[in-house]
Structures are given as structure tokens and as C-alpha cells.
């Protein structure tokens, strides 16, 4: 062995030892000098993203104090308010108008005043109604203005208000009072006196505007497990429209395919031996259907993600930066996650990306199931985004962020660690090539993605909301559904509406439809909508004129008006659809971002339905409209309890205005039909139950 070889081996050995020492010294999260550090991203925000920030608990408290002292009416804490009281239903940030924000962010203008949106229920006055106030400036409020008529075109009738927790408590008390009228029946059917039965609401609540009558489904309740899989066959219809709780009534009873006027009538029929009773024994804890208790000891630990030099992203206030990306994040207590001012390498791509609504529409041969059309925004998609479990909901190394809200209380609440941010190694090349032609070489790039995640639990279902930012400049939005299915009592031709998943349990078919708002600003505010797709043309071969060939060619089109840009659900849509800037790239093509949707949606509610207009956003897989400040959301929390006269009807947004070189918004629907099956017990799995869309650069750059 010559001296040169010895020296090379010695250098390699020293390098190996140095690398091992570096690894051992960098097991913590602090960066070290042993490995190359990526260049620090220039932080030019200087707190500007706070213009979008959710309210702090201190700001919420100041708004409540101001309203208590400035409205001249008695306000009762919503947690104990009766329908006949006045109360503060919620307080959230009022995001300033886009023009004001852009003057501040891009034009050096003044910071817009920070304001709150307060929703109040006025039940203690001659004309009960829901009123929305803008309160400001924060942190020390000095004014409020009623924006209800300006926002909705009129007052919001009181019957449209969402049901509060206190209202549910009073309804449950009424149901328990009524159940006591059928003691022999309850013992025979359910081994119960009624107090241990769980009660599940349905919605909407009637058949016409002004109704407030709700079917409630009863289940065997077991601590530590989901009751949703254990219906006992009993459902009750409660009339709770009156402002005085003492006047509420149980209007109808359903049991095992039959309807009765009251629990007393049901008891009389049972005692007379005229009722077919299906005896359902109360399940034992270890045998309950849908138990989450592990049946086997856990196996060996799986692989874990490791960040040798700590996270490569940075979080400051409500803004996260990562390898060229900059995103302002927040959480609407009603509609859920919302992102603003999404930039890549300093250029804004998206002004607003926000969840709007989640619909779950059921079928069944039981009244509760067949009438259910949950609009989860009225329950609180953001409010019910609870604490995430490290290592399962998100990686151990993720950064966990608290979210605060004020709803149905005068005191702010905190959902700790309810939003997580992490870098994800997809274990898939972002791009790669191995060449064995002419010369041998390999080139590749790891696919590492920044993920912003929250998980909302809406009664039985858990929705996992993901917003993912790729190194290629693409944005991926994805939702997975998991949690418990909802079920009905199996009777008659129940399997026309689902599958049997337990002794007396029908897993009821339903659809999940999710709606998003995407305010793209590609190369500036003014964009146009361009489509591209393929067709074949039959041409003669230029080199052999006696022969022909089917040649694919590209059909390009610029859509001029909103009606052209409204694509009905489950119908063919151009395969390439892009928001195009007037500015070209190096090769002369408009700098664009392409919208690519992945969805398996069920069928939209028929247009003949009296409540279809309240869900009219679901008509379209994609609709592109001109952005208007007076059209901030595609739906309203008031649509749930009055879908027959919707407070916001998305269909009205589409009025055939021109969409060429305008500030445009893409409204995107994704979803899937779910026919529950045996494998949905205990919980629906996320595998195959994910839908979403991509925003992908298309001639936006000159190269990758």
C-alpha cells in the first residue's frame, strides 16, 4: 500500500469520526456547526401578519366588558342564558377589508384598526333577533356598529340562531322527564330507566322557516366509548321554538318502525301487549360495540422522525416560514382553519385559503337519520378542534400551538396544543432520474413538506385538516374523515340505506361534502381563468400522405364570465384549469397556478329540495367568481336552522359577471360518499377517506 493510499484512508477515517461526533452532539434541538445550515430566511414581516391574527384572550375580555357597558341592555352569560335572555354568543376577529390590508402590506399605508366581530342573541326584547356588531379599536374598544343589515340584507330572525349548550341541557331535562312516563317499556326494551341513555341531536329542525322541532336519537351510553353504535330504537321529536322553556313539548315518539303521540301512549301500547319490543341488553364494558380498548398489547415501536438540528421552519406570532414559504395562520371558531398572505420566495400566491363548511347528509328509514343534514360550521369546526396527541395526531417533533375562542360564554376558552406545524419527510423523491443512456448519473431531490394541521371532532366524526406546502411551490389541501360512524336502529328494510354492522345497528349511508375558499393572487391581484384539455385530430402523415394518424392537440380557452366558470358537481371539467397572470414567464406563457381537484363526491341534494339553496355551494366542484368584500363566505352559521330561507345563498354569487383580468376567487367542493361497513367499527380509517386539491405552479417559473 503506497503512501498516497494511506493518506486517503486516514482522511476518510478522520472525516467519519468527525461526522459521528457531530451526530452524537446534535441529539438536542439546538443547531450545531457540524452540519451545513441552510441560509437563514430573511425576516421582513416585522409583525405585519398580525393584521390577520386571531384575537387574544385579553382582547376578547375587553370586547365583552365594552359590550356589557355600552349596549344599554342586560346581558346574561350565554352558558346559562335562556332563549328569552340577551347574551353574547361569540366574539372573533374582524379581518379588515382586503384593499386596506394590501395598502398596509404592499403600499406602505397605515395599519388598519384592529376590530372584533361580536354576535349577540337578543331574546329579551319585543323583536327577538340575532345582531352582529363590529367592535373596535382593539385593545381598547371605543365604538361599535351594527353590520347585520349591511352584511345580510336584513335582520337575522331569532329562530335561525344555533342551538346553545344551555338549550341542549334544557332539552335533555325535558326528554328525561318524558322518559319517566314509560318505565315498563324502558326496562323491557333497554334495561334502563332512561337516565343512562345518551341523546344525539339531528338537524335541521323542521320543514319550514320558523320551525325549531328536533329529532333526538337515543343510544346506550357507556363511559369511555362511543355510544353512536348502540341505538336502542327510540327517537323523540321535541318542539323547542318558544322562548319560554316551560312551553316546550315532546311532539312525537318513534320506536322500531312505529310512531306514537307521546311516551305515555307508547307505554300504554306496551302494557297492553300490542307492541313488538326488541330487547337490547345493556352492553358490558368489555363487550360494547365500538370499544376503543386495545385487544392486544402494543407491538414494538415504529420509526420516528428525527430533526438532527431542530426544526427547519420558524414560527413568529401567527406566521410560519419554511424554505421560501411564508404563511399567516389562524382558526375561525365556526368555520375552522384559515390561512392568509401565502407567499413563496416573497411573492404572494394566495391572499386567503379558508375552510368554509362541512356537510354530512344521511339516509335512513328512521326519522332522525333520514332528516339529518349537519352543517358543521353552525356547531363550531374551529371551536371543537381539541388538543392533539403527540406522536399520533402529529409527530413528536411538531410544534404545537394553542388556539383561543369565545363562544357561549363571557370567558375565553383555550384549546391547548390544538394546531400543529411540522416538516414531513414523504419518503418519496420530489423528483429523480437515473441515467443509463450515453452516460451514467443520478440526480434527485427529497420531498419534504411543511404541514399545518388541526383535527375537529364534530360529535361523532373527526376531520383531519391538512395544509401542505411543497418545495416545488405547490400547495396541497387535504381532509381525512375518521371517528365513529353515526347509526340507526336496524329495522324493516334498513339495509336499503346502509349495512348492518352490529346486532341491531345500521351503519347509515351518508355523504361528506367540504367547501373551501381560495383567493388566489397569481403575479398580482388581477387574474384570468384559462383552461386546457386534449382532443384528437385526424391528419394525413406528412411523410406518407396515403396514411393518416390521430394526433392529440391542445385546446386552449380563456373563460370570460362566471357562468362559464361554474362547473357542476360530478360532471367533466377541463383537466387543466389555471389562474393566469397578465405577466408572462421567460418563455412567453402567462404565469399561472393550476387547480387540481381530487374528490369522490356523492350526489348533491336535488334542486327541487326546499333547502337546496342553503347548500347551493355544493352544486359545483369548482366555481370562480369575482371577489367581493360583501361575499366573504359561501354559507352562514344561520343556514343550519333555517335552510328554507338561507341567510347566505352561494348561488347568488354567480351572476355572470366578467372574470377577465379581475380579482378572482375559486370556491372548491370536495367530498365522498360513505356507505359504512364492518371495517368502520370501531372507527372509520383514514385510508381511502381523504380528498382535497392542489394549487400547482404552471409556467409560473422559468424552470423548477
From TrEMBL:
Its cofactor is Cu cation. Its EC number is 1.4.3.-. The modification 2',4',5'-topaquinone is found at residue 461. Contains 1 topaquinone per subunit. The keyword Hydrolase does not apply. Topaquinone (TPQ) is generated by copper-dependent autoxidation of a specific tyrosyl residue. Residues 161-257 form the Copper amine oxidase N3-terminal domain. One of its GO terms (molecular function) is copper ion binding. Keywords: Copper, Metal-binding, Oxidoreductase, TPQ. Belongs to the copper/topaquinone oxidase family. GO terms for biological process: amine metabolic process. It comes from the Eukaryota. InterPro entries: Cu_Am_ox_TPQ-bd (IPR049948), Cu_amine_oxidase (IPR000269), Cu_amine_oxidase_C (IPR015798), Cu_amine_oxidase_C_sf (IPR036460), Cu_amine_oxidase_N-reg (IPR016182), Cu_amine_oxidase_N2 (IPR015800), Cu_amine_oxidase_N3 (IPR015802). Residues 305-704 form the Copper amine oxidase catalytic domain. Residues 74-143 form the Copper amine oxidase N2-terminal domain. One of its GO terms (cellular component) is plasma membrane. This is Amine oxidase. It is an enzyme of class 1 (oxidoreductase). The active site is at 376 (proton acceptor), 461 (schiff-base intermediate with substrate).
